[in-house]
């Protein structure tokens, strides 16, 4: 069991270190993209979620996070700041997904090679 946990932590740490900082926060509500915001400029935005709920998004210092929400569990607030390509904050009750995109790509255009 300890070997599995150690292996999982190594993979997590490796992925964290190789991920590039993202350029944009892509906001989707119920699967539809509603906004694409640059992480390079600080701003705040209220996101109207599914069925009238709201999430307050803050972009500051190249990272974004949900500072306030009216969902019952508030898990989206607890997910913290995101700034790396591929990271996301999800609010299931409001069907809001905020994903970081636009990290630097390899110069050869290859994401992965599978054998």
Description:
It is a single chain. By secondary structure, the protein is an alpha+beta fold. 18% of the residues lie in helices and 37% in strands. The chain has 2 helices and 7 strands; from the N terminus they run αβββββαββ. The strands form 2 sheets. A 4-stranded antiparallel β-sheet has the order 2-1-7-6. Strands 3-4-5 form a 3-stranded antiparallel β-sheet. A hairpin with a 2-residue loop joins strand 4 and strand 5 (63-69). The protein is globular, with a radius of gyration of 16 Å.
Tell how many strands the DSSP assignment holds.
Answer: 7
Helix segment tally: 2
Helix content: 10-25%
The general outline is globular
Mean pLDDT: 86
Content-based structural category? alpha+beta
Through-space gap between termini: 29 Å
Main beta sheet: 4 strands, antiparallel
**What string, H for helix and E for strand, traces the elements in order?**
HEEEEEHEE
Q: Rg from C-alpha positions? A: 16 Å
Beta-strand percent range: 35-45%
Stretches where pLDDT is under 50 for at least 5 consecutive residues are none
Strand order within the widest sheet? Answer: 2-1-7-6
